[in-house]
Amino acid sequence: MNNYKVDLRKPITTGKVVNPHLNSTSRSKNDKSFDAILKQTLKDQEPIKFSKHAQERMHTRGIKLSERDIKKINMAVDLARERAIEDSLVILGDLALIINVPSRTVITAMDGQNMKQNVFTNIDGAVIV
Question: In the Cβ-directed half-sphere of 106, how many Cα atoms lie within 13 Å?
């Protein structure tokens, strides 16, 4: 047993000197709070989701994704996010996906046969995996 005595009425400190006049209102506008950074980090780690429309398209077109494909798509979404892309065309082999990057949601999917002579609109970037 140790002989340490702790007074629980006193705050525990790290020994660092903190400026009591510095508060959240004196931060620059570019600084993010811990909460905002944590939420963004957790969101970045979310797996991709598939909209109902994308699920229906994949089912009717017989598109199946492996775990490796999902990892590649997640990497593509991360790359698109780094470039501030909102809606991205992701080409994975003979598969084309339209993905809303901020929500990490696949909007639609098509295979090579359905990609031919197709025009992709309302995208602001493309990632080829």
Answer: 24
**Residue 80 domain flag:** yes
Q: Which amino acid is at 94?
A: D
Which amino acid would we find at residue 103?
S
The whole-angstrom separation of Cα 55 and Cα 42 is 25
The residue type found at 110 is M
Q: Residue 117: inside a domain, yes or no?
A: yes
CB atoms within 10 A of CB 75: 13
- The Cα-based distances of 97 to 1, 5, 52, 84, 85 in angstroms read 62, 62, 14, 18, 14
Tell me the pLDDT tens digit for each residue of 72-122: 999 999 999 999 999 999 999 999 999 999 999 999 999 988 888 788 889
Instruction: Print the domain residue range for 85.
Output: 48-128
Number of domains in the chain: 1
Cα separation of the two ends of the chain: 59
DSSP 8-70: TTSPP--S----TT--GGGS-TT---HHHHHHHHHHHTSPPEE-HHHHHHHHHTT----HHHH
